Amino acid sequence: MDYYSLVQFETNRHSVPVGYVRKTVTLKALPETIELWFGGKMIATHQRCYKREQSLYDLAHYLPLLEQKGRAIFQAKPVLNNAPDVFVAWLKKKKETEDLKPKELVDLIRKGIDIGYEKVMHGDIAQYTSPSEKIQPDDLVKVSKPDLRIYDTLLRKGVSA
Predict the structure, then answer these.
(1) Which of 42, 66, 89, 161 gives the lowest tally of CB atoms within 10 Å of its CB?
(2) Whole-structure pTM over 0.90, yes or no?
(3) Mean pLDDT in the chain?
(4) Quick one: CA dihedral 18, 21, 26, 32, positive or negative?
């Protein structure tokens, strides 16, 4: 993976979350998707692109970096290639009129990714909750550990699965 948080497969480059810059990731090319893995965990997935010399950015991968480098938000390729032009123009105007900080701009971009850019521009974000806030402790399902001794019994009897 390179300094720009891109990994190359064939002639195309695919984004990886910025936390994995300069780390070795595993790429699995499937017929319709590209999966990127690190330490046994899938960290990114992209639709497979059969065009040549393409850079495929997932805007969410770059949000932590954009929070730190706020002046780059409106020139960053991940933003320009993913967010609609009308949203970027709206964001620029909002920054100028309300003097928003980079973290606030990135928060609006994140909401745009999660619920849609149109809803964010029209202020339909009252119902918005971040993905981490959606899971409540009551939502968790308790799973008991299975008793695998039955398989040992079947093996002793010569039964195969």
Answers:
(1) 161
(2) no
(3) 85
(4) positive
The secondary structure of residue 144, as a DSSP letter, is P
Residue found by looking up tokens 């046994």 in the block:
40
Give the separation between CA 76 and CA 72, rounded to whole angstroms.
6
Q: How far apart are CA 136 and CA 148, in angstroms?
A: 31
Say which residue the tokens 């320009």 belong to. Answer: 80
Alpha-carbon distance of 6 to 15, in angstroms, equals 4
Of the candidates 130, 136, 135, 134, the residue with the CA atom closest to the CA atom of residue 106: 130
Q: Are 107 and 100 in contact (CB under 8 A)?
A: no
- Cα–Cα distance, 108 to 126 (Å, whole number): 13
Place 86 in a pLDDT band, splitting at 50, 70 and 90. very high
Q: Which two tokens stand for residue 106?
A: 């990135």
pLDDT tens across 101-152, in order? 999 999 999 999 999 999 998 887 665 555 555 556 666 777 778 777 877 7
Q: Residue count of the chain, please give it.
A: 161
Helix (H, G, I), strand (E, B) or coil at 102: helix
